[in-house]
Amino acid sequence: MLIFDKAFINGNIYSMIKPDHRFQAMIVHNGRIVLTGTNDEICRYDAREVVDLNGKTVLPGFIDTHCQIPEMIDDTRKVNLKSAESIEEALSMLSEAAKHVKSDKWLIGRGISSKKLKEGRYPDRWELDKVSRNIPIYITSFDGHTILGNSRLLEVTGIDSSYVCESGEVVDFNEKNEPTGIFHELTIVKKLLSFCPPLYSDDNECREAIEVFLRNHTKLGYTTLHSIFGNRPSQLLRADYFIQLEKNNKLPLRINMCWNGFYENRMKIISGMGNNMLKIGPVKFLADGAIAEDTAFISQEYRDRPGTYGYLTEKEEILTEKITKAYKLGNNVCIHIIGDAALDYVIRLIKQIMDPERNNRFELIHCAVARPDQIEELKKLPVVVLKQPIFIQAPNTLHGEEKLGELNQYYHSIKSFLDAGLIVSGGTDGPLSDMNPFAGIQAAVTRRSEDGKVTVNPQECISVYDAVKMFTVNGSYSNYEENLKGTLEEGKLADFIVTDKNIFETEPQEIRNIRVEATYVGGKSCF
């Protein structure tokens, strides 16, 4: 007689197949759900273990379709400047941290926002020199698209008045042609960080940091993370650590590894390689920058900077060549898109290069400003839209009209995409925002600031069901896993969470306070 691995009974289990579709119990065997039904129906079968859910609500495990695990792990070793409200306060925080930095290391900060600083601008190299002239200082903005450095950083990296920017690099110079220590966009990051000493004393310390991070995120309800990995040596090495964890059955959740700019593919890594625990995802490209830094490419001039429209990260022909090469090598492609002019370019690009016989989907990250005519065009294309609803609460979103003018009515829209029949998944872009998925779900439902005082484009509010669907059902469509996960039904992976409250009966403004009591991946408890 067949004895199954586990039976879960007395639950309030939402399948997410359709609204309010639920059942009481299920049987899990070999990592998959094999039967669902009532307590009576499931209790007819023998199982090695019976788990009483005590009437708790069960949901499919959450899927974050856009985050950056290596960056989040490293951020635990950086100075958090998110709370700084003035340049003076930021310098004070850095000065305190500098006391503990060894002479052969860098002082690294993160999360600073010019929108929150009373000066309305970032500190330049000379202001950062007040913290230290002896050790390099390297700071990333809250959205990751602006880098700040002191004079020592410029000396170490060889950036001076004679520096000639390569394609995609943006270095600020003053009227005397002196570099100010302010850099924009991600092309320059690889060059700067190539000089950075290791953040970890040895490999074991790095591996331990990875394991702690992953375990902590199962506590948030995640069973799958789609993470960007850069092409810097340190991140490639850490990718190997993930492979080792998977081989040793130590991965507590599933990882889809997305590669940043691997268009030449010298390592012969192709999307889809791997297994259900660790899989290679798409190659990522950036079409443009960020609204806050005026580097997102928009069709109308920035309201607060007349004559400025932003720009593509590289010349159109170069960017097109790279993306086309990655696609023709057999990879899937995901593209960071903020401005509507950048989206115009990507729509043209997809029409130009897509191969109907491949039956693949292009993943469009953010689509922060999308006009109605563009959404109509996207309906005709094989795309999945990767949204981060928590961005609705970002400072630049709450004051979007100051920069975007009329385009602000389309800023971080979600409902318009769903109404058009497009698949919209949920994510956080962590570490750039709160990784709590319930906070993102609440933001999508209410579109209110964290303090509830500001509502952003209320016509784009969606239902709780649709918001949960973004982080479950729709998340599975990214990387072609809709037949494996995203819903709780027979034949699918037994990835699910148990929560302390029923999200569908919780007041929308309280959703972010829901807590996960248990997380199961393949039917095994990982929290």
Can you describe what's shown?
This protein has 527 residues and is of the alpha/beta class. It is built from 17 helices and 24 strands. An eight-stranded parallel sheet has the order 8-15-16-17-18-19-20-21. α7 crosses α8 and α15 packs across α16. The longest helix has 16 residues.
Say how many strands there are: 24
- Record the strand order, biggest sheet: 8-15-16-17-18-19-20-21
Residue stretches low in confidence (pLDDT < 50, at least 5 long) are none
User: Helical residue percent?
Assistant: 25-40%
Give the assembly state of these chains: single chain
Largest sheet: 8 strands, parallel
- The overall average pLDDT, rounded, is 93
Distance, first to last CA: 31 Å
Radius of gyration: 23 Å
| Helical segment count | 17
What share of residues are in beta strands? 15-25%
What general form does the structure show? globular
What structural class do you assign from the helix and strand content? alpha/beta
Task: Label this structure with key terms.
alpha/beta, six-stranded mixed β-sheet, 527 residues, globular, eight-stranded parallel β-sheet
Quick structural overview:
This protein has 527 residues and is an alpha/beta fold. The protein contains 17 helices and 24 strands.
